[in-house]
Amino acid sequence: MYKVKTVADVIEELAPKDLAESWDNVGLMVGDMEQSVNKIFVCLDITSENVAQAISIGADMIVSHHPLIFSPMKRIIESDISGSIVRALIQNNISAYSAHTNLDHATGGTNDALAYKLGLENVRRFTDEECCDEFGKPICNIGRVGTLEYPMTIEDFVSYTKSVLGCSSIKYVGTPGDTVTTIAVCSGSGGDGIYSAYHAGADVYVTADVRHHEAQLAFELGLNLIDAGHFETENTICEFMKEYLEENLPGISVVSSTAEPYLK
Description:
Layout: E1 2-3, H1 4-14, E2 27-30, E3 36-37, E4 39-43, H2 48-56, E5 61-64, H3 81-91, E6 95-98, H4 101-105, H5 110-117, E7 121-125, E8 144-153, H6 154-165, E9 171-173, E10 179-189, H7 194-199, E11 204-208, H8 212-221, E12 224-227, H9 230-234, H10 236-248, E13 253-256
Parallel strand pairs: 4-5, 4-13, 5-6, 10-11, 11-12
Antiparallel strand pairs: 1-3, 2-6, 7-8, 8-10, 9-12
């Protein structure tokens, strides 16, 4: 039998907390490091739906990507959505742990999982020289760059991405007939990485939550851009985390969320 602390230590071997962005909140959100754990529920978000599923399977611990608590909570009451979720966790003796931007940065983490899901080869991080805006100002280095085994047209790659990530819809900027080989990725909201992808020589940049002016920038730069959805680009981490925990915690039972994206 394992304890929450053991599970946390295993996750932090992969994604040390000091890799997290300064604004982030990672680690144990609710619970007790000394609590015994027999079953873990893995999810992208700690929502009422996922908590209900964790309760139904008898989970002792939830491991999520997005933190349950971002801003300080002034009260924990049933009539508040976040409060009701925290109350449900406590009432059912479920500890909740989140690994967010530390897992995005980590080797083998969220962005590597996305690159793997897309079948990319020769995957690498952006270099420091590539991570700068048009004025040379440094920008966040969190994505990956890789290559396809065989070149595709952007139109075919959009369809491929939609199929592989399970997107019900997808948006993109680009010319359908363009041939793409080098692919840059950033899971979740990666609009601020457009210059990194451009400087890395990517033919297309796969990310999510792209704003109008970011799409316009990619167009002006001649960079093909795919907005595949926040959920779709990050939910791949559930499958990965399930396998990672099972491999490093022999005998533990791990169940992955069956939640679907809200936006379709």
